[in-house]
Amino acid sequence: MRRRIVLSIDSSSRGRKAVHWAVRAASTLQLDLTGLFLEDERILRMASLPLTKELGLLAGDVRAFETADVERHLRREARELELLLKQLTHQYRLSFSFETVRGDPFQAMHSRRQADDIMLLGFFDTRVHSIDWARQKSSGPIAVFLDDETHSKQTLAVAERLARQESRPLLILHPTALSADALAKLVGTLQVPIQTQSVSGIDQLVQRARLFHADLLVLPDGGRLGDPTYLQLLAGEIPVLLV
């Protein structure tokens, strides 16, 4: 089967930006595109609890939170995102498919993933300090994390192709333990402007991305940050392309 980009999105406002990124990446890499709209069952379970209430901001009234209202909202968001994906893929002459999946977001995503798929994580938590895509500069660098020589070569190649197509520089993030020789070997043949920064943890990855106004983080699949626990922390802050 042809290699794909699998876009995983939810009903957050940032999902629309994720669709744009996925389409541009699929066009640059000449891949098919599959969209997964994730209905988080934890939200639906919470809405069904008898103590869950909705407060009307204008009238000040309190009423039971209706699960049916949440489900209607999710269906509406899914239809709108599918329509946006259809419009953009038609513009870029790409083929696409779209599916709505209910369950745990990461389990649902991985259950539909095939071995060679590139994943774009466009679902986020709603913490106030997460990066606001709507206000994010569109000319910032593409950030890429180089875990080690084994996992990083293909990741860097994908990040470079995107950077060249988007006319953007690369922000090279690497662990402090990566030797200068290994780093030089990885980045020595790049044809785009780069800036390198060492990081010692997930928090610093996000800090550097925010500092340099990056709006996409490319990660090597199978590296130390490929664990769902780490990915969930990162995807709550910045869109992640998992290569």
UniProtKB/TrEMBL annotation:
Protein name, per record: UspA domain-containing protein
Species: Leptonema illini
Top-level taxon of the source organism: Bacteria
